[in-house]
Write a structure and sequence with these properties.
Elements (H helix, E strand, L loop, with lengths): L1 H54 L3 H7 L2 H8 L3 H18 L3 E6 L4 E4 L17 H9 L1 E7 L6 E11 L2 E10 L2 H7 L5 E5 L5 E4 L34 E2 L5 E6 L2 E11 L6 E7 L1 H106 L3 H29 L7 E4 H11 L1 H6 L3 E5 L6 E4 L1 H18 L7 E9 L2 E8 L29 H11 L3 E6 L8 E8 L6
Helix pairs in contact: 1-7, 7-8, 9-11, 11-12
The chain binds adenosine-5'-diphosphate.
Length: 579
């Protein structure tokens, strides 16, 4: 959980601003390049527009300089000629919408002017100091922008020399204003201005900027601002920020950034400038930045969601693995406990068996020993008395008792005996018949009915005939013992063959086996019989014998409950009939 969250935080705190900054920077530079390109194109248009405006009327003073009336006026002026010329100039100026149109003599004296009727008439004024006049006289034509000294109206002057008989007699001058142009530029998208060689704006669509000088420390490369020329004039309210072509203007609602584009006009005296708003660049940068930020944030969130799911999955797997391992640990511990308990139990069972065995053997042997002792003592007395018959009889009793003791030790030896190793086909039917024969007197004595259900043909099993008989004698004998005192005493012996196995069962109608005794029946020396009646070795020996045969011996109660008698089942491997 922790790692994905930390990564998400990092992505959001670091990735989002970085992506936003990078995207905004990239978009801004792209937008700025676009803006620069379009501003330059726009400026070229304005430039063409301005030049067309200036040259629109340049032909008029040139034509007038060739005019015969002008020449004759300048050669020999007369009041009539002056008056006639005044009217003519007035008409032409009105038609051109020019500020003034006038004729000067070679000394700079104004002879006739379109504004002859007005208070600021040029007639009689001397403008010989004006650069356009001097240039026209020297080179044939002169241009100049200036603030009119008489009219105080700025204008663009175009002057042409008048020649009469190869002699300079004067000049014709046209002065036009820029109202029309400024109106055409209007308060458009761009802020436009034209500066003269002193860096003073004289044409602009920003009325407040007229006659303001360019800032002295304009960082762009403009060869227009000779020191001192614009001294005393107000400076344009421009602040420079960052790049050299970035201008900040204080406007309503705070400072705004503009891109400054400049182009020198042919002749080199004038420069046209445009200021284009950088707002679209900012907008594009913002949009790109926000988009990038949103994208990165979305990506980070998606990655976070995926990581969360993954880590939840991993956690679940880890938990499953842990609980599996815990289970394994517990099982291992439980197994170890079980093994320890089992060991203890086996040990205890062995000790208990040993105790029982000792008690059993001691009892079985002590009785005959004690009897033998008394028979021997008696024999000594009888011998002294010379009763040889009685002594013989005692000695006979002693011999019988030793036989009985021998029988006991034989039984013990049978328990110790190992498999002979020679197993062969044995007839199970024959073994049953033989065992019943051996037990005949006992069964008759105890009035036991035997029902045997044996196949007609012999069933051949793997085993050894004497020991198989021993097992059957034991089982049938036990059955008879278990029915002692019961009203019905019936033993049922059945033999069937199924799946390569012979099933031989011995069922009785006796007391059955107590639930607690069932698991211990085959343990050596387990017996419920009175001391002297059984050693508790029969079933354990039988069990060992049957296992040697590769079969099994199991015990159960009939109907699954004690009280209905017991049933012992022998499973033996069937085999081929002997050749
Ligand atoms: P023993 O006959 O000397 O007691 P066994 O090993 O032959 O030794 O038998 C052990 C015990 O199994 C018997 O003491 C008896 O409690 C029980 N048992 C054996 N066969 C039967 C049977 N058919 N019905 C009830 N209990 C039986």
């Amino acid at each position: 959980m922790e790692r994905p969250r930390r990564l998400l935080l990092t992505a959001l705190l670091l990735g989002v601003p970085v992506a936003a900054a990078v995207a905004a920077g990239w978009a801004a530079s792209r937008a700025e390049a676009d803006l620069k390109e379009s501003a330059a194109a726009q400026l070229a248009l304005y430039n063409a527009n301005l030049r067309a405006e200036l040259e629109r009327h340049a032909a008029v003073p040139l034509a007038l300089a060739q005019d015969a009336e002008v020449k004759s006026l300048l050669s020999s002026p007369s009041p009539e000629r002056v008056e006639h010329m005044n009217r003519k100039l007035e008409d032409i100026a009105r038609a051109l919408d020019a500020l003034a149109l006038y004729v000067m003599d070679s000394k700079g004296q104004t002879i006739a002017a379109s504004n002859w009727k007005t208070a600021t008439s040029f007639v009689g004024e001397n403008f010989s100091y004006r650069p356009y006049f001097r240039k026209a006289l020297d080179q044939g034509e002169g241009h100049h922008f200036a603030l009119g000294t008489t009219s105080l109206v700025p204008g663009y002057y175009t002057a042409y020399r008048v020649l009469a008989e190869n002699r300079t007699v004067g000049a014709v001058v046209l002065k036009i204003g820029f109202d029309r142009l400024e109106r055409a530029w209007g308060p458009g998208q761009e802020k436009l201005l034209v500066t003269d060689r002193s860096g003073v704006a004289f044409i602009t669509n920003m009325p407040d900027w007229r006659y303001h000088a360019l800032p002295r420390r304009l960082p762009i490369d403009l060869p227009l601002v000779p020191e001192g020329t614009s001294e005393g004039l107000d400076v344009l309210p421009w602040a420079f920020g960052g790049a050299s072509d970035r201008i900040a203007l204080e406007e309503r609602g705070g400072p705004r950034s503009y891109l400054l584009t400049s182009v020198a006009m042919p002749g080199g005296d004038w420069t046209l400038h445009s200021l284009t708003s950088l707002a679209p660049v900012t907008v594009r940068a913002w949009v790109a930045g926000l988009l990038a930020a949103a994208l990165v944030a979305l990506g980070a969130l998606a990655a976070y969601a995926i990581a969360l799911r993954r880590s939840a999955l991993v956690e679940r797997l880890v938990m499953q693995e842990e609980s599996r391992m815990e289970l394994e640990r517990r099982v291992t511990a439980a197994k170890a406990d079980l093994r320890a308990a089992e060991n203890e139990l086996t040990q205890a069972a062995k000790l208990a068996a040993l105790g029982q065995m000792s008690a059993g053997i001691a009892h079985e042997i002590n009785q005959p020993l004690a009897a033998m002792r008394s028979f021997a003592d008696n024999a000594v007395v009888l011998l002294e008395r010379g009763r040889a018959d009685a002594v013989r009889s005692n000695l006979g009793e002693i011999a019988e008792l030793t036989d009985r003791m021998a029988a006991i030790t034989r039984q013990l030896k049978g328990f110790a005996r190992r498999a002979s190793g020679t197993l062969g086909p044995v007839s199970a039917n024959a073994a049953v018949t033989q065992a019943l024969l051996l037990l005949d007197s006992k069964l008759r004595r105890e009035d036991v009915t035997v029902e045997s259900d044996l196949p007609d043909t012999p069933v051949w099993v793997v085993g050894e005939d004497v020991r198989l008989q021993q097992v059957l004698v034991n089982l049938i004998g036990n059955a008879a013992d278990a029915m002692r005192g019961c009203p019905v005493r019936r033993v049922r012996i059945a033999l069937v063959v199924a799946d390569g196995e012979a099933l031989l069962s011995v069922a009785d109608s006796g007391t059955g086996i107590a639930e607690a005794a069932l698991p211990r029946l085959f343990v050596p020396f387990f017996t419920t019989k009175e001391a002297g009646e059984g050693l508790g070795l029969g079933l354990s020996i039988s069990h060992g014998i049957v296992e040697d045969f590769g079969g099994s011996l199991t015990a159960a109660n009939r109907n699954g409950l004690p009280g209905h008698g017991a049933v012992f089942t022998l499973r033996l491997k069937t085999t081929e009939q002997p050749a």
